[in-house]
Structure formats: C-alpha cells, structure tokens
Amino acid sequence: MKSIPVLLMGCGGVGRDLLQHILTCRSLHAQQGLALRVVGVCDAKSLIAVSDDDLLIAQLTDPFLKEICRFKASSPSAPLSDLKTFDECVIYTTESAEKVVEIASNLGRSTGLVVVDCTASAETIGILTRVVDLDTIPHIQSFTSFALDSYLVGAGLPVITSLNRILASGDYVRCMIGSLSGTLGYVMSEVADGKPFSAVVKEAKSLGYTEPDPRDDLSGMDVARKVESLYPDKMGPGKMSLEDFLGSGLPLLDEDVEERIKAASLRGNVLRYVCIITDSSCGVGIQEVPKDSALGRSKGSDNVLEIYSRCYNKLPLVIQGAGAGNDTTAAGVLADIIDLQDLFSS
Ligand SMILES: NC(=O)C1=CN([C@@H]2O[C@H](COP(=O)(O)OP(=O)(O)OC[C@H]3O[C@@H](n4cnc5c(N)ncnc54)[C@H](OP(=O)(O)O)[C@@H]3O)[C@@H](O)[C@H]2O)C=CC1
Ligand SMILES: N[C@@H](CC=O)C(=O)O
C-alpha cells in the first residue's frame, strides 16, 4: 500500500469537502493500493498536525477529521485551536505558517503541491515563491508542472490537462473563447430568467460559487487571473465594506442589468461574461452571444471553453461542466493529489 501524506492548508468550503472526499474514497483508494494520510490541517490562525517524530508514519484519525469539518462548518470564524477534543497531535498557533513549510520540508522528496487558491494575492504568491525557492523540496521547484487542473481554471474541469495534450501533440491553438467564471455564468443565466441581479449574486455566494468577496468575481478579476493562467507567459498581463456592498450596493445595479438583458434578448442574444484569447490578444468582459451557441446555452455555474486549433478548426473542442462549487472543486483537487503521486513513483 502506498501512503501519501497530505497537509491541508485552508479548511473552508473546499478544504472541508476535500477532507470528506478523502474519507469517502478510503475503500476506492485501498483498491488502487493507495492510502491518503492526513498529517495536518490548518486555517488562517492555527495548525493541527501530528508530531514531528511521527510525521512519516502517523495521521489524524478519520473521526477527528470529521470533527474538524463539523467544527469549521458550524463556527467558520473560530480557529481550529478552539476545538474541544483533539487527537494525538500538536497545535500550533502563532508560528503555524512557518510550521507548514517546515513539515513540507521534512516530508522531503515525496512532497508535491496542489494549488486551488484563485486569489493570486500578494500573500499567496509570497507563499508559493517561498515554496519554490525551498531547496529542500526538490519536487516543488518546478511547481507549475505539478499544479494540475485544480490550479485556477474551471474548478475540477480537465482544462489544463486537455490543453497540455493538444499542445504536446504539436497541434496549434489559435483561439480560445470561454466563460470561465462559475459565479458569472450562474448570475448571467439566472438574471436572464428574470431574477434580480442583487438576489442572484447573494444566492451565488451562499452556494459557495463566489470568491470570499464576490466583487472579485463581478469585477472580472477572477476571470482575468484564469485567462492569464491559461495563456503563455508572453500574454501575461475599496471603498465599501463587503457587508455594505451586499446589503445596499448590489440592489442599485439591478435596473441596469435588467435593461441590458432585455436589449440583448431583442437581438436573439444573451449576455455572457467571456474571455477571448488569440495568439495576439486576450480580453475579458460582458458580450452578447447567440442564444443557441455553446456559450449561450450554458446554465448555472457551468464553465465553457471552446478551443480552436488546427485539428479543431471549424468546430471547436468544447469543455463544459460545473466550474465552481466546493464539491466539484474539492473532487478536482483530490484527483490532482492522486495524479501527483504518479510523478513521484518514477
Ligand atoms: N469554492 C469554489 O467554487 C472554488 C474555490 N476556489 C479557490 O479555493 C480557495 C478556497 O475557497 P473556499 O473554500 O470557497 O474559501 P473559504 O473562504 O471557505 O475558505 C478559505 C480557507 O482558507 C483559510 N486561510 C485563509 N488564509 C490562510 C492562510 N494564510 N493560511 C492557511 N489557511 C488560510 C481560511 O481560514 P479561516 O477558516 O481561519 O478563515 C479558510 O479555512 C479560494 O482561494 C478560491 O479562490 C477555486 C475554484 C473553485
Ligand atoms: N469564484 C470562482 C470559483 C473559484 O475559482 C468562480 O465563480 O468561478
């Protein structure tokens, strides 16, 4: 049985679903000769991990992982260190970020990195840069090759894998057109059905589709980051509190959105928030697309990506499916973890 140590950074919607998936897949993984061994879980303020001495053999028990999920779901703002019951483990508070790097470093050559953080914030980039610079984790030095599908694009959809296969075959990608925001896909299709913009944005937030601050989705920043991550390097690119925005800001936008939807509909179109990437340009924004196109037919939080290449010339390769949501995103992360271990076996 191959044992894969997992250190989970972040125990919000996606992190908890990942733990649940790991527990649910225990027997499936056993049939594949694998065992995922969760050695630590952290949130923004604390880290719970097996002791350094036991790092290569021990794990947090399944009942304890369930308790972690239950606790964070019922008290999301409370740190993990406030848990009432603990496994045999060590709790770190102030120095938890340093400790995460140390544990990863101690796990040595078996360490890989699966990233699902779309924020591309200075903090995230700072952590990734440190990890890449860390000589003691050789497999992470070229982390981009280990950052598989869950890395930024399409939640669990096989977007990056498919693109890599096309490029590896020598095919030439000339254009990609996509709706890469689950939130904006959901918002656009729901407002077209006549619901107020403000109510739909709040629904998207409660369904776990949006970024913690939905303005990251509404501004196009989340899509722009994904476009950047889909494209080669050469194409590389507040005044109101969140509460006020959700409470009084959003409803002010309802009327304008409703008018734009009506005007598009008179032309047989619907509005979609799309990105268009060619070999000389890349842009994101609201566009009218025909109702009966792949993009126009998309519903709910689906992401759609049309890839035009030499092989997929007149009719594009279309990748479509849920592009946001804790369950599907966590499933993509789990698949990436399993894929990663293949790289270490050689
Ligand atoms: N939900 C979705 O559909 C998708 C989400 N993503 C990405 O996944 C990430 C997580 O999303 P989601 O679970 O919805 O977000 P949540 O806000 O529900 O959870 C975020 C978690 O990360 C923890 N955290 C924040 N900062 C740090 C830090 N410095 N060190 C360790 N942990 C930290 C938070 O801790 P605390 O509990 O203490 O606040 C919290 O547990 C986001 O970056 C998002 O962009 C990607 C694709 C789809
Ligand atoms: N907010 C994103 C989900 C995570 O990336 C989206 O709506 O697509």
CATH class of the largest domain: Alpha Beta
User: Which structural class should the secondary elements be placed in?
Assistant: alpha+beta
Helicity level: 40-55%
Strand percentage, roughly?
15-25%
SSE order in H/E notation?
Answer: EHHEEHEHHHEHHHHHHEEHEEH
InterPro entries: Bifunc_Aspkin/hSer_DH (IPR011147), HDH_cat (IPR001342), HDH_CS (IPR019811), NAD(P)-bd_dom_sf (IPR036291)
GO molecular function: homoserine dehydrogenase activity
Organism: Stephania japonica
Cofactor: a metal cation
Structure, explained:
- Helix content is 42%, strand content 18%.
- With 346 residues, the chain is α+β, with helices and mostly antiparallel strands.
- The protein folds into two domains: 172 residues, Rossmann fold (3-Layer(aba) Sandwich), CATH 3.40.50; 165 residues, Dihydrodipicolinate Reductase, domain 2.
- The strands form two sheets. The chain has a five-stranded antiparallel sheet with strand order 7-6-5-8-9. The chain has a four-stranded mixed sheet with strand order 1-2-3-4.
- It is globular, with a radius of gyration of 21 Å.
- About 4% of the residues have low confidence.
- Bound molecules: NADPH dihydro-nicotinamide-adenine-dinucleotide phosphate (NDP) and the ligand N[C@@H](CC=O)C(=O)O.
- The site of the ligand N[C@@H](CC=O)C(=O)O has 11 residues, from helix 7.
